[in-house]
Write the structure tokens for this entry.
Amino acid sequence: MAFLELANLKKSFGATQVVHDFNMQIEKGEFISFLGPSGCGKTTVLRMIAGFEAPSAGRIAIGGKEQNNLKPNKRNIGMVFQAYALFPNMTVHDNVAFGLKVAGEQATEIDQRVKEMLGLIKLDHLADRYPYQLSGGQQQRVALARALAVRPQVLLLDEPLSALDAKIRVSLREEIRAIQQKLGITTVFVTHDQEEALSISDRIVVMNAGRADQIGTPFEIYNTPATRFVASFVGTLNMIEAKVVDPAANRIQIGDQGVTLKQSVAAFKAGDTVSLALRPEAGSLAEGTPSDTKLTGQVVSAHFLGSVIRTRMNVGGNVISFDMFNSPGVTPPAAGETVTLRFMAADLLVIRD
Amino acid sequence: MKTSRLGAWIAIAIGAIYFVLPLIATIEFSLRMRRGAYSFDAYASVFSEAQFRETFGYSMLMALLTIVFGMLLVVPTAYWVRLRLPQIRPIVEFITLLPLVIPAIVIVFGYLRMYNSSSILPLTGSTTGTNILLVLSYMTLSLPYMYRAVDTAMRAIDVRTLTEAAESLGASWTTILFKCIFPNVMSGVLSGAFITLAIVMGEFTMAALLNRPAFGPYLQLVGANRAYEPSALAVIAFSITWLSMGLLQLVSRFHKAAPAKS
């Protein structure tokens, strides 16, 4: 049985349903990310787990125990907020000690646990500072220590890195992952940043309009997106419209060029339009590239982005972007030039809407 | 540019003369009790009077009770409105503004009708009951200032997130309110407290009509029967107000020096 179970969760605010039949089984010690754009319902699901929102229907259970009727202060769930939410009137030490004091632990035990937690986030030297004397990154680390101090069953992270600058975000997300793995705590992380989700999660739930479009490992989510939304939201992707020529042989046609897919198109009829996806890094112009498929087209533009050159080419009305590594010996193609893109047919994915 | 600056200075000068001149005249007159020389005789006379000490002490006690019970009413109300009932905020704001538009005499007559000795709740039937009624009426009078001061302080902190953070750490409602919210709106609470102190110390209508020995009615009594002492009392009353305003400034400056970032 899964440690954290979300079964048929629904949530409506008035007439608007923001979460539809959300199902998820999370194992003990797993790091799960809810990834999606603003308003997709990811924070609402998190808040239902925390107890701040009551589900309109469905069941939430932790360790087999139903949580639906428990108040937030009885669930033993640690939560870290985007806005840090440190108590401004308390020092770092007192903030971390707050939950332990509420639980009625002995003063010596509290001191020992606070020291342990501040050591974990490497801020033991700032124990007497007030929140306003700390940087954003330091405040969020204190908030993490405060949430972990009470030994919660589950740790919830509600976009904890969104208010921080880019450099701190990267270092703090790695720190969060390291601490989570060290403590083995079951963690749910909400983010709209795909890079964050891909880099630190065991599994990702891609959410769209209140539904889980796909649940999978970062590798699965990135390489085999299940829906058009997942494909477009996670990473940059070329969407190509093609015509089915021979469903039994998986033959399709892009413009006037024929391609044999690895994925089945048996569900389509000859003449149907099928949506295909191709990652920009999957193709190359170099002749020695390992490939079994080619597409020829005219270069629309070539943009120099530093380490890579992003080239856009037109193939039968479809504009396909692909990246080439920058090298002083390689001249970027000129607009209007005819080029041949080489790639593996397995990288061309059939996408459902 | 120069003409407009001159105009501004003239306006300030006229305003200052309008406000400061009567004050200087009052202070000057309060020092002229002894013939031919300036002295503090009028102040000595005021301070030596038992009635002054009694009424001053009574009003201070009433102010203290008003502040304590006012805060116990206003802070949880403002907190609850911000957290759970933001839709009724305009209604609450309207109610808190009513004491500014309804004259004190109307309010006190209403109280006398509602709580007289033949009513269901005969508060005016005993001294303690009347004192309670006076504190409640002072709470009503100070409501517009207190609510705004506390509400403004609450706006500076993220009440909802702080509450949720405390809840997730296992805190009960009382712990959240007294350990996490109250200390962070203390600047607003103190601002409201000083304004309340200034209002209660100078209030006449409520105390006079409820027949309680407060400082306001005493000021009026002395003013009607003595020559120099009323001026001394007016200066003392002004000083209390100024002290309250000064402390209010001090508190808000202290609050600015240590902003409550969340």
The first helix of chain B runs from residue 2 to 30. Chain B has a mean pLDDT of 89.
